[in-house]
Amino acid sequence: MIEFQGVYKTYGADSRVSHALQDVNLHIDDGEFAFIVGASGAGKSTFLKLIRREETPTSGEIVVNNFRLSRLKRKDIPYYRRTMGIVFQDFRLIDSMTVFENVAFPMRVVGKSRREIRHRVEHVLALMDLQGKGNRFPRELSGGEQQRVGLARALVNNPSLIIADEPTGNVDPQMSYDIVEMLTQINKISNTTVLMVTHEHELVHQFNHRVITLEKGHIVADTGRPRRVGTVSLGAMAAEMGGAEE
Amino acid sequence: MKLHQFFHLIRESFRNTWQNRLMALASVGVLVCCLMLTGFAYLIYVNVEQVFQNAVEQNKVAVYLDITLSDYQVMRVGQKLENIENIDDIRFLSKEEFLAQYNDALSDETMDSFEGENNPLPDTYIITMKDLAKFRETLTEIEAISGVDEASYDADTAAVLSRVRNVVLAIGSGVIGVLLLVSLFIIVNTIKLTVHNRRLEIYIMKSVGATDGYVRFPFVVEGLLLGIIAGGVGYGLIALLYQLLLDNLTFDNPLLKLVPFSDQWSPLLLGFLVGGMLVGVCGSAISMSKYLKQEGSERL
Question: Which one of A54, A79, A82 has the shortest CB-CB distance to B295?
Answer without folding.
Answer: A54
